[in-house]
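STRUCTURE REQUEST FORM
Protein name: ELMD3 protein
Source organism: Casuarius casuarius
Requested output: structure tokens
Priority: standard
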Amino acid sequence: SEEWQRAQEEWEAVENIQSGLLEESAGPVPLISFNEALQYFQTADLSECRKKIQATVRRRGLAALVRFLFGPPRLQQQLQGERDLALAIAQCECALDNNEKVHMRILQTVYKKLTCSTLSCPRYGAHWEELGFQGADPGTDLRGTGMLGLMQMLYFVMDSQTLPLAHKIFKLSQHETQARSAALTPVPLQNFPFCIMSVNITHLVIQALREERLSRECNRRQQVIVVLNDVYVAAFLHLYAVWKAQRKTVADSGFLLKELESLTKKKPKQLLKSLETYLNQSLAALADGVQHPPSGKVGSVASSRAGEELNFTGVCDLRVELEGEARLV
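Status: completed
Returned output:
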């Protein structure tokens, strides 16, 4: 109707005014895809970052012999350049740069996709804490993972198949106090800092890569960064399933991160199989009775792999070494 159209135009005018207050004079910040962001890093000068790369964990003596005899396969030579690129992006020197438009577009895209907002937000402010960073500046929380921590968030929210999962996890992370009364059993709060948890998971994935625990899967697929992203999403899915089903709280985060460290290093294939199953079930539910997609890739997870279902009760005794500002507990 004419009245509805007039109201719509007035609302769009309000949005434009608000956007003008938030955006820089150059205009609105467009969303950026993961591939476009990756192409930027592929062509950027990361020479200083590359100098400090320690591609693999160095072992000596008996540890080196055990690794040679029983350890995972080494990453094939043709994939080492892609591995080094991922590790260079993860260097502290590649942290968030206010003067780099691609960095700002990545940050704004993560914000918009998680909050479903059409408006950009200020570079600094309490809104980042609501997203799950520790303070008003997201850059301070990327010290342990560099821009790779933000890139993996970007992958999570820009892939059409994983975005619904990202929204579910983000919603759980925002868990609010439920109504309580003397007659009801208190309900524990399940909220947690989404972005800090994400950075911790990226850190675990980097550890697994450097210890060559992901080399077998990278060699099989002839890809590195795609495998890193899939393991990251699969680890987040595992955490979400345990957190929700077992009513975990922030007090349990260290325990769960230890479990994730063990899974990413010892059973990455099992994690990926669980993610594949989840995505297949999600696609089937959306299709509402339509036939499952053919074998091949679901997102970037090969659906032809075999493996056991993920056991959510396993716990390892490994110690997680979380870095600096990214530490949860």
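Reviewer notes: The CA atoms of residues 174 and 258 lie 23 Å apart. Confidence is low (pLDDT under 50) at residues 14-26, 177-183, 291-327.
Form closed.
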